[in-house]
Amino acid sequence: MDRHTLFANYVNNHLEAIGKVVDFDADHDRLYHFDLTAANKELTAEVINKPWMFSQLVNQKLRENNCRYGIGGYMEHRTIYAFSSHFDTDDEPRRLHLGVDIWSDAGTPVYAPLDGMVHSYQDNNTIGDYGPTIILQHDLDGLTLYSLYGHLSRKSLEGLSEGMPVSKNRQIATFGNANENGHWPPHLHFQLMFDMEGKQGDYPGVAKFSEKEIWQKNIPDPGLILRFPQAVNVG
Hints:
By secondary structure, the protein is α+β, with helices and mostly antiparallel strands. It is 17% helix and 26% strand. It is built from five helices and 13 strands. The strands form three sheets. An eight-stranded mixed sheet has the order 1-2-5-12-9-8-7-10. It has a three-stranded antiparallel sheet with strand order 3-4-13, with no helix packed on it. The longest helix is centred in the first third of the chain and has 14 residues. The radius of gyration is 17 Å and the shape is globular. The termini are far apart.
């Protein structure tokens, strides 16, 4: 049985073991689905290159649609990464988003959705990168799973140590602002991996689109953990 099937089976058979990543209330909160592909004509070059304009657009969409959180991005082919050389390569630029983004205000609490421990952490302080990042390690009945939390506040890294235990629903971080999170509108990059491939405090969150099938083997859909309802809008 492959790791994706083992993971899905674990989630389906241990719903009580799955906690929250953010304070989403399905009875009262609405989700706005952000489309960050070329189909979104509001994402002009000017908006992409000015974090304050990008933030203004995000906040406007959430406010107009009465949504506390925005969502989107798993295996999405995005155009927004053109603003930073961080995503350039010698041949094909990186444009495939590997995790899920949750958009909300700076300071929004972030929680561990599963019992586990701190695998690693660091401040990936480059324009376009994650900024402060935490990676947790989980044991799901023998299946190792890693969860990554990017674009955090710098305060989120204080007091951490590798191997430190974390429990389900424990707050581990907060969303960072544009001055500390890689120059992005406030949001959380949430990603799952089966194998860290020897990396510490960092793991690719954007890859070459031509390598999508390769990355999918190691990166399951975070929706299995988030269990969010259908988003209300696209734009």
